[in-house]
Design goal:
homodimer; DNA-binding; 66% helix
Chain lengths: 118, 118
DNA sequence: TACAATAGTGTATGACGTACAGTATAATAA
DNA sequence: TTATTATACTGTACGTCATACACTATTGTA
């Protein structure tokens, strides 16, 4: 049987799981490259491991939601990503989905708090 | 390459994924049995398959977050579940975690909408 | 009597973030 | 000049867990 901390840790990972894609899509309305995106999300208190982000970017591109292009003009080559047209469509709909889920959850939680406040 | 519908479907599943545990914990501050819980969540527009709920209830009990007891007084035996003390603790903390993530996500989404409205 | 509803158990599969290992080179510090 | 850090990315095995069924049993209703 796990401790409260361990259980919370893994549940928090699950909570973040789906939000990761929405987070990343939301940041790629304007083009970004991977390393910069890791840093920007860090600043916005939404930390993400580079080892998580890069595979996710590739998967989203494979699914046609992102487009990438290499910029080799700088001292280091950088792979820029931006939402494709399909990606914009998915982003808008996923945003709505998120808000629906978020609202429903808040309703459930408030109902229970009303019945039995902490 | 998948269609928008397919991609949205699987992303929506991921969005719901973590919220499932919080949803179920929130409904078990007062004791419930599985079949009734499926129906109540259906009414609250948070549908969940019975085949998803029963294994989840067992897993949460195994983790010590729920306690169960059989009620064999009715015509059909029913397994009632309720939060344990540990479960109440996890529930409160997970609720906070949810609200943090929810707020952060909303900030990210509003920032992007400000920059480039739909 | 047949079918639907009630109530639950069991489990293989697929999706995906985590947690690394790894590569390469430019920039900076010593 | 050398060592270390920062920048930037690729690759992949593993663990977790919801889904999607199959299944069982019996009560209640048509």
């Amino acid at each position: 049987m796990d401790s409260v901390g361990e259980i919370l840790g893994s549940l928090a990972v699950e909570l973040k799981r789906g939000t990761l894609v929405l987070t990343v899509l939301s940041q790629l309305i304007t083009k970004e490259y991977g390393y910069s995106l890791v840093q920007k999300l860090e600043e916005k208190k939404v930390p993400i491991e580079a080892g998580t982000l890069y595979p996710l970017l590739r998967r989203l591109e494979k699914q046609g939601l992102l487009q990438s292009e290499w910029d080799t003009g700088e001292s280091r080559p950088r792979k820029f990503y931006v939402l494709s047209e399909k990606g914009k469509d998915v982003y808008i709909q996923l945003k709505d989905e998120w808000r629906t889920i978020s609202k429903q959850m808040e309703i459930l939680l408030r109902e229970e708090e009303k019945n039995e406040p902490d």
